[in-house]
């Protein structure tokens, strides 16, 4: 984003170069369990992080140290495009699994899944519109959405009477101030932003 560095992806590796003289600064590689290596990259707007995609996973790397900071898992087929919102809070990805997903960058959690995907993923300024080309190149898909101001995960307590956890559903109270999560052992009430059950 600052124009100080550029990053080509070649033969499964990402190479960070200085723009001023073309000098190689760092080589980034996918985890060892990704034999095909890195396929796509997207700079975070802060210029200090890069999202890299390999097969069905993507990760976030620190440019300065070359260390992987996080992994985002969920796609079931190879990813074909990545894009950050201009704030960097959200990362979008498209895949051959025919889904487009929106990830919360800091929590690494999936916030939205669209049942369609394609090539040439783009996000508008402000991040409220997302577009991509259909696989056959005949159409452009345009989505408009309201980005939440926060993303949060609530976890029901470990079961005491059953061997495994099973959350059947979740629902908001009429005013939206409470969230109810129902599992085999009962109903748990949460009051955001507190992640532990209120009752």
What does this protein look like?
This protein is an all-beta fold. The protein is built from no helices and 18 strands. The strands form five sheets. Strands 1, 2, 3 and 4 form a four-stranded antiparallel sheet that branches. A four-stranded antiparallel sheet has the order 5-6-7-8, with no helix packed on it. The protein is globular, with a radius of gyration of 20 Å.
Tell me the strand percentage band.
over 45%
The Rg value, from CA coordinates, equals: 20 Å
Number of strands: 18
Largest sheet: 4 strands, antiparallel
Spell out the helices and strands N to C.
Answer: EEEEEEEEEEEEEEEEEE
Structural class: mainly beta
Report the helical percentage.
Answer: under 10%
Distance between the termini: 46 Å
Shape: globular
- Average pLDDT over all residues: 87
| Helical run tally | 0
Low-confidence stretches: none
Keywords:
199 residues, mainly beta, four-stranded antiparallel beta sheet, 46% strand
């Amino acid at each position: 984003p600052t124009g100080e560095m550029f990053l080509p992806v070649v033969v499964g590796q990402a190479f960070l170069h200085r723009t001023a003289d073309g000098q190689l600064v760092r080589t980034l590689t996918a985890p060892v369990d990704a034999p095909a290596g890195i396929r796509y990259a997207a700079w975070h707007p802060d210029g200090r992080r890069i999202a890299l995609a390999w097969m069905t996973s993507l990760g976030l790397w620190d440019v300065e140290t070359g260390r992987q900071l996080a992994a985002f898992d969920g796609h079931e087929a190879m990813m074909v495009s990545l894009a950050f919102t201009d704030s960097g809070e959200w990362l979008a990805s498209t895949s051959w699994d025919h889904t487009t997903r929106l990830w919360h960058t800091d929590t690494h959690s999936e916030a939205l899944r669209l049942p369609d995907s394609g090539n040439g993923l783009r996000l508008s300024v402000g991040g409220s519109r997302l577009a991509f080309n259909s696989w056959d190149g005949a159409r452009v898909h345009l989505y408009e959405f309201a980005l939440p101001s926060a993303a949060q995960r609530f976890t029901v307590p470990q079961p005491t009477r059953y061997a495994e956890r099973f959350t059947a559903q979740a629902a908001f109270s009429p005013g939206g101030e409470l969230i109810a999560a129902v599992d085999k052992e009962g109903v748990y009430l949460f009051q955001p932003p507190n992640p532990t059950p209120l009752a």
